[in-house]
Amino acid sequence: MPFPLFSIGNPMAAPRLSRICLLLVPLLAAGCATVKQETPAGSTVTLALLETTDLHGNVASYDYYKLAPDASLGLERTAALIRAARAEFPNTVLLDNGDTIQGTALADYQAVAAPLPCGETLAIYKVFNALGYDGAGVGNHDFNYGLAYLNQVTGSRFDVDGVDPARAACAGPAFPHVLANVVSVRSGQPLFRPYAIIDKAVTATAPDGGSVRATVKVGIIGFTPPTIMTWDKRHLEGKVRTIGVREAAERYVPEMRAKGADLVVAISHGGLDDSDDTPTLENGSWHLARVPGVDALLIGHSHQVFPNAASTVPQFNLPGVDKAKGTVYGVPTVMAGLWGKQLGVIGLRLRRDGARWIVDKERTTVEVRSIQPAGGAAVAADPAVLPLIAPEHEATIRYVKTPIGDTDFRLSTYFADVGDTSAIQVVNQAQAAYLADYVNANLPQYADLPVLSLASPFKTGSAGATDFTDVAAGRIALNNAADLYLYPNSLVGVKVDGAVLKGWLEKAAGRFNTIDPARRDEQELVDTGFAGFNFDMATSAELQYEIDVTQPPGRRIVDLRWRGSPVAPGQQFLVATNNYRAAGGGAFPGLDGSRTVVTAPDNNRDVLIAYIKQQRELRRAVHGNARSWRFAPVRTAGPVVFHSAPGKVAVARQAGIDNVRELRADDGAGKGLAVYAIELAK
User: Fold this and answer.
1) Residue range 183-207, pLDDT digits in tens
2) Distance set, CA 159 to CA 13, 152, 184, 294 (Å)
3) CA nearest 427: which of 540, 508, 321, 516?
4) N or C terminus: which one in the chain shows less Cβ crowding within 10 Å?
5) pLDDT value at position 37?
6) CA nearest 154: which of 168, 140, 174?
C-alpha cells in the first residue's frame, strides 16, 4: 500500500505548523529548516531521541483528586527536562508513546463533562505543539473514549462506522500520529498512517572538524497492544481489527527503508514479553527488537523505567535484554515511566557512510532522566506550559468540586493489600445495587441468582507515596468519586458458577508472593509486578474466604463460603464488574466475554456517583468495614513486609487492621514509601 513521505505533522495542519515554527524559531530551528546540500562521507552527528510515555493527561503538576499541587508529576516539569536535553543535544527528535489523552479529571472534563468543540485543540496537544513534538504513537487508553473522540482530537479522518469520513477534520496536533497494527474493518486500511518519515535538519561534524548542515530522514512507526480489542470491545468491535506487533513491523519497516528512511524508530506502546509471538500478544516489544531494520525502540505501557540496572522486574531480565546499558537484542531501548515523571533520552551516534547514516551502537547512550531525582528536589516547572491550558485547568477544578454527599470515615487504599476495604466497599455496593435493579427490571430469569460485585484498588503506590486513593472524612465531591474509580469503564454483569468465581479469586490472589514460614529474613508480601487493579475482591459479609499465601498461585483460596455454606462448583452467581474484566482483561480464567449477561449503558464511575448521591451519607458501619477475605493464619519465623505511605498506622487502626506496624519510614527505593510488617498469625 503506497504512503507519501511525510514531513513533520499532518499535511492538513501545515499552515498551523508554519506559524508554530515561526513563533518558536529558537527552540525548533533544527526541526523547521530544510537542508539540501550533500553531506560528506565520514561526517558524524549525535541525534537525541527524547521520549515521553503514559502521560495519562497529566499536563499540570496537580492532583485533581486531592485538589493540590503535586511536584512529582506533570508535563510542565518534563518540559524543563526537554529544554535541558535540547541544550545538551543540539539535534533532537521529540516523540510521545501514547496513553496520552486519558487518565486525569482534566481528560475526563474535556471528553465527557464539557466535550471539546471540533475547532479547539485538546489541552495536552496544545502543550505538545508548543514544545515542538515531532510525532506520537497511540496507546491502549487513547481508545477509552471511543473512536469518534479519538478521531476528533487527533485531527484525523477515520474511515470507520460512527465517524463521517466526509466531515472536515477537527483541530488536532501539529505532528503525525503513527500506528501500524490497527486497521479499519470497512476499508482494510490502517486507522492512522502506519509510519511517517521526518526530514530532520541537523548540524553534523565534517571529517575536517568543521560544521555542516545535513538532513537525517527519521522514520517513525507506531504500535499499540492488540488486546485493545478486548479492553475496549464496546468501542472497537466491528469497526477495527488488529494485527500482531512484529507482523506489522515486518510489513512496513522494509517499505520505510525503501522510501528513504535513514533511521527507523519504533514507538511501541508495550513492554517486554518473551511469550510466543502471537497476533494478540500484549507486550510485543521484545519480539519487535529482533525485526531487521529497527534502529531504536521507544517502549511504554508497563509504567516502568528502562534502563534500570537495579530493577528486579522480570521483563527486564529476559534473554537479550541489557537493563544497565538499555538495549534489547542490541537495539537502543528506553521506557520513560509514567505521568511525566521521566524523560527517556537515547543519544544515537550516527556516521555518514557514503549515502547512508549508520548508527554506532557502541557509542550510543540510553538513559532516563527524572523530574525528581532520588533524594533531591523536583525540577522547576516550565513557566510557559500552564498558561497554555489555564482555562481548561481552572474549569476542571471548578467541575470536580461539585459536592455529591458526605462520609464519616476516611476512604483510602493505603492498606488495601492487607484487608482495608474502606475505599472499595462503596464501589462494590454501588455496582451490586445497580446490577440487582437492572436484573429485576429487565431480566427476570436471573432474579433469583445471588448478586455479587468484585472491585479492586486502582491506586496502590506503584508510582510512589502519593499514588493512593485517600478521601478524607467530610464532604464528598466529584473529584473524590473519580479517585475511588479511576477509569472510564462501563459496568458489566457476568453469570458465573462457583468454579469460575473461585478461579477469579485465585487469579486475584496472585497479587501476593509465596511466603515461606521457615524463613528468618524479610519476605515481601506483595508482588509489585502484579497490578493492584487486578486485585479484585468482594466486600460482603455473605461471601467469605481466606487467602493462604504459603501456597503457590492457583491454590490459595481457602474455605470459600456463601452465606455460611461452602460454594459448590456448579452454584450460579451474577457478578458486577467492568467491561475490561468481563471481556478478558487481566487474563482471568473463565472471563472472555462469553459470560456477559448485562452490558450497562452507564459507566462504573457514574454508577458510583449516583449511589453516593442516593445514600447522601456514607457511614463506616454500613459502607466501609465489610471484609470478605482474610489471610489464612500462619506464624512466620521472620518478618513479612509490604510498602505503603509512611506514618499511616493510625489509618490502618481506624479500618480495623491491627496486625501491621511500621518498620522503616523510608524503604530506600526513592519513591517515598515506608516499610511495614504484617503479623499473618493474627
Assistant:
1) 999 999 999 999 999 999 999 999 9
2) 19, 13, 7, 29
3) 540
4) N
5) 56
6) 174
Residue 17 has pLDDT above 80, yes or no: no
Provide the pLDDT for residue 35. 38
Q: Which three cell numbers stand for residue 610?
A: 449516583
In this structure, which amino acid lies at residue 493? Answer: G
Helices (H), 265-306: 285-288
> Residue 6 pLDDT more than 90?
no
First to last CA, the chain: 65
Query: What pLDDT does 20 receive?
Result: 35
CA dist., res. 149 & res. 187, Å (int): 19
Grid cell of 564 as nine digits = 455460611
Strands 44-52 and 92-96: parallel
Task: Tell me the three state secondary structure of residue 92.
Answer: strand
Contact assessment for residue 124 and residue 100, using Cβ atoms and an 8 Å cutoff? yes
CA-to-CA dists, residue 563 to 430, 505, 531, 540, angstroms: 20, 17, 30, 10
- Give the Cα separation of 546 and 131 in Å (integer): 52
Number of residues written out for the chain: 682
Provide the whole-model pTM: 0.76
Q: For residues 325 and 57, what is the distance between their CA atoms, to the nearest angstrom?
A: 30
Give dist(CA 618, CA 626) in Å, integer: 13
Residue 380's alpha-carbon distances to 54, 465, 642, in angstroms, are 21, 20, 32
Query: Which pLDDT score is estimated for 499?
Result: 98
Count of C-beta atoms within a 10 Å radius of residue 167: 11
The CA distances from residue 424 to 141, 467, 602, 612, 651, in Å, are 23, 16, 19, 13, 15
Q: How many CA atoms lie within 13 A of 237 on its CB side?
A: 8
Going by the DSSP 8-state scheme, the letter that residue 468 receives in this structure is: B
In 222-302, which ranges are continuous DSSP H helix?
A: 228-231, 233-236, 245-258, 285-288
Angle at 159 between CA 153 and CA 163, to 5 degrees: 55
Decide: helix, strand or coil at residue 57.
coil
